[in-house]
Amino acid sequence: MGDCEPTLVNHEMEHHIVAAAQHLIMALRASTNLNIDDMRSFLSNVEARLSTKSTPIESRGGPLMDMEEQLRQCEIVIMRWEANQSLIWDSSSEETSEYMNAAAEIQKLVENLESVSPIRNGKQKELLLRAQNILQRAMSRLTEELRHILVWYKEYHEPRYMSCRSFVEDVVYDESFASIEDEAAELTSHAEDGGSASAERRVSLIRPDMVPALKSIAQVMFSSKYDQEFCQAYVSIRKEALHEYLVILKMEQLTIEDTLRMDWDKMSNEIKKWAWAMRIIVRVYLASEKHLCNEVLGEFGSVNSETFVEITKASMLLFLNFGEAIIMSPRQPEKLFRVLDMYEVLAELCNYVDALYSEYAGASFRIEFHDLLASVGDYARGTFAEFRNRVALDRSQKPFGGGGIHPLTKYAMNYIKVLSAYRGPLNLLLCDREVKCLEPCLGIDNEEECSADSSCALAVHLRSLVSVLESNLIEKSKLFKDTSIQHIFLMNNIHYMVQKIKDSDLRRYFGDEWIRKHIGKYQQHATSYLRATWSSALSLLKDGGNQALSFCKPTFRERCKAFCLAFEEVYKCQTRWIIRDPQLRSDMQIATTQKVIHAYRTFLGVNLGSIGEKYIKYTADDMENYILDLFEGSPKSLPHPWKK
């Protein structure tokens, strides 16, 4: 069938050649110079042979008759399926091949008939119109078949979990934080490589054995100049399939206004879903969609990339617009971890997006994606600064009851602990931010480890944050009028900071020397507490006693009484103070016992005769037991067991 076009042209040329040859023969016969019999015989033979060629084309079969017969045969195949409600690709492979071959034959007939211009032959024009009509019917049917294959042979895949810090709990600072047990406030996060990307994974979006069918339909429709109809049908079905997948991933069609109106809990959950879905869509689904486009449309140049962009445009804009909405919302410290999740996802997917939209048609998506990455990074930096300001500027109007661990300390340390899990992105975002830190690298013996951990941008900022927190706590301690509880308050909070750092990955950023230094700090506050609380009372038990009473013999009895009154006051006051850490509380009770009970026992042992047993209100053993009630956070009063 491929020879139809030159055949039609050659016959038209032959008609002109025959006419010219006949004219030449007549001229030669009229010439008187032809006296050679052989020449005349030759010309006679030529005339005889040419005469057989001079019969009009229409009077014998010719190429148009052949084309008409071919068209008739193809029409039978095409029209047979017009009345058939079943689908071609649900029939046998022989019937499918027959239909596709017929469609291809008609397309070639149309090309051959259109190639002669202008069309002078009425029969030729009639055949062309007829062929075009049949071709249109075939293309309409193939479009239906295309939709059928894309819908009914679609592969379904349950989205697999892809690692992401989406279950890091929010750290929100309010007064209720004070009542949360430390274990409940602990925040879990993935290790640094928890969100790392594995290799791109593709899945089959269409049953693999049907991909050749899509490709063959594309080839016939494109060669028949029905490429636009093919692409419209293909794009509409594949867009719908992608939308269905987003529904499975529970991605809502949110506008920027919808996002900005959300409360934080709702927004936080939406960011978690966004980060999870974004990874799956780009690395799995879009990679698979791109692969399918390449298989079906790869040989058609830019149409391939343009089709892919059209399929994915709405979904990508959904993700990008959500990101834009988030960075338009106010910067609040509790948002930082969610924003860092977003930044990690965007940074991880940059190369994937660049590859997916590498052609000209996808340039706008590449640009928007990189712009969003930069904007989210700026937003994260600003939110980090907002957290630092909150720690620095938090001001209390009254002392925190009982001298326990302040809510700001819990909030800040738990927050900092989670920050350490984001070493990768934070080092990138904070590396150009200067911060004053007096301890650049402490307690790391290995020089390489010092450089990698204690000297990184994140480590410098974390140490600075803890320094800011410590300064704020010193200011808060001044709200207590009693010097003793000031020391208890600072001892509690510094001890809490040390434990958080010592027992977690934060240790690598602070170093052992920082830990030793701050252990020394809270131990110094413990010593200062003992001195501030008991120095005056214990002075009553020393030789010479209180000079105001030392001039008369009954002073031993008076000194013992005064000491017991001082002990009662300490007991009444300090049983409501709190040291929540059991080991630290036990250490303080032991230190108090060693300092106080030893002095009291010695005093009684030396002066019992002078005092009189009946005037001893509390024995040393009594006081030792009462000291165990201190720092329990439950105010108590001593009984008054006078000895008889």
Automatic annotation (TrEMBL):
InterPro entries: Cullin_repeat-like_dom_sf, Exo70, Exo70_C. GO terms for cellular component: exocyst. The keyword Protein transport applies. The keyword Nucleus does not apply. Keywords: Exocytosis, Protein transport, Transport. One of its GO terms (molecular function) is phosphatidylinositol-4,5-bisphosphate binding. Gene3D superfamilies: Exocyst complex component Exo70. It holds the Pfam family Exo70_C. It comes from the Eukaryota. Residues 272-629 form the Exocyst complex subunit Exo70 C-terminal domain. GO terms for biological process: exocytosis; protein transport. Component of the exocyst complex. Belongs to the EXO70 family. This is Exocyst subunit Exo70 family protein. The lineage of its organism: Eukaryota, Viridiplantae, Streptophyta, Embryophyta, Tracheophyta.
